Amino acid sequence: MKNSLGTEEAIKLWDQNAEIITANYSEQGDLHREVLLNPTLFKLVENVKQKNILDAGCGEGYLSRIFAKSGASVVAVDFSKNMLDIARKKTPKELNIKYHYGNCEKLEFLDDESFDIIVSNMVIQDLENYKAAIKEMYRLLKSGGSFVFSILHPCFVTPDSGWEKSEDGEKLYWKVDKYFYEGVYEQAYPQGQTDKVLFFHRTLTSYFNAITEAGFILEGLVEPKPSSEMLEKYPSFEEDFRCSDFIVFKLRK
Question: Which candidate, 122, 108, 104, 129, places its Cα nearest to that of 54?
């Protein structure tokens, strides 16, 4: 694993793959977002009407559009210019979402204590300096405001993790390896593609320490699983009861 690779290299790969990654997105994002992440995020974020929201790492902007349609004033940033181009094309002007190019590790163009709520959906694991990003969210958040972020579950999604299968292709169990390795690794994304992106793995302890060192209070923690309604719509997600793909934090300033 190439620990010398950093955020700049990650940006290049997300830029190169922006069209492929978002090709099958609906207005609810991809299927994992629709089934697992969105219900959890919306429950933790709660009411957004008349709130100032930062979508930190907005990608193609589906969450920004959902929040804006729900009455929020939305600022959205992303480190991929190609993702931002896609987001702007998909966003009706009347939603008045303010898109900016920026790396969540340092958003100096945004003022202190500007936002009631910050949401960062599947972004922190894409950044080399995750501690700086978490501290930056603390700076940008109003006192009493909430920061909700989702990541790949660090206990289960690790370098070289994946399904172990029988000779006839049956999924036997999910293999976890290299949990205490902290650093960068390459991952084909979306699954089945030959092109790769970079993820940065850390332990759950490291995430918790970064959260408390920034000054946040941990208010909620959810490992999303599919609802009965989602299982009826997408039966293949039954396998997500075997292993948690994601973890979502709700922090309070």
Answer: 104
Give how far Cα 221 sits from Cα of 36, 43, 202, 205, 250, Å.
Answer: 14, 12, 17, 14, 6
pLDDT tens across 161-196, in order?
989 999 999 999 999 999 999 999 987 765 666 667
Question: Does residue 78 sit within a domain?
Answer: yes
pLDDT for 172: 96
Tell me, yes or no, whether 212 lies in a domain: yes
pLDDT of residue 118: 98
Q: How far apart are CA 140 and CA 219, in angstroms?
A: 18
- What's the CATH number where 50 sits? 3.40.50.150
Q: What is the DSSP letter of 79?
A: S
Domain for residue 168, yes or no?
A: no
Domain count, the chain: 1
d(CA 82, CA 16): 8
Amino acid making up residue 198: L
What is the reported pTM?
Answer: 0.94
What's the chain's Rg over C-alpha atoms? 18
Residue ranges in the chain whose pLDDT is less than 50: none
Q: Does residue 182 lie in a domain region?
A: no
Domain span at 227 = 7-153+203-252
